[in-house]
Specification:
A: mainly beta; 12 strands; 0% helix; globular; B: mainly beta; 7-stranded mixed sheet; 58% strand
Chain lengths: 111, 113
Amino acid sequence: AQSVTQLGSHVSVSEGALVLLRCNYSSSVPPYLFWYVQYPNQGLQLLLKYTSAATLVKGINGFEAEFKKSETSFHLTKPSAHMSDAAEYFCAVSPGNQFYFGTGTSLTVIP
Amino acid sequence: DAGITQSPRHKVTETGTPVTLRCHQTENHRYMYWYRQDPGHGLRLIHYSYGVKDTDKGEVSDGYSVSRSKTEDFLLTLESATSSQTSVYFCAISNRGPYNEQFFGPGTRLTVL
């Protein structure tokens, strides 16, 4: 079975601090991996995706994620948090037939 | 932004009534999806379509049916709404299937009393 685990349903960071949102996946086949962001009362917006071209993936708004096969992880990072980064973040895996989403991590940025 | 609209955006209905939600796209994408979003569960796939009149079940399809008679429209029907179907429903589209990113609509907030 395919699944995605996001550790920490809520994460708080100070403005300017490192953002680290964790995602681990289980997949019986090499997966495609995605991070989405959801701002209040909006749909999901793609941040970045991993499709096996490179293990370090850069996305929009200064976010990046590193695929680590040995750890089955795809953690999302941003060097310096901005107030506008406050949102809910979802990791998703696609082993080929459909998407499986994690339960989400709500990011709070403290001024 | 991908051209995806959902209607209605908000709906309140009573238990036992039928409800139809509409997803409309202007991107001519082949794949369309319906998800529900609930606290603590993330997004869960209800049904998806891989072409006109071609649909399949997702993880939480019980109590829901779908139809796609045109490329641009994907309808989700709750035949007899229950309180457990109170949720936010999102439509998504993709042009090359599940390996590729999905673009999401703005969502429909459904409350079943």
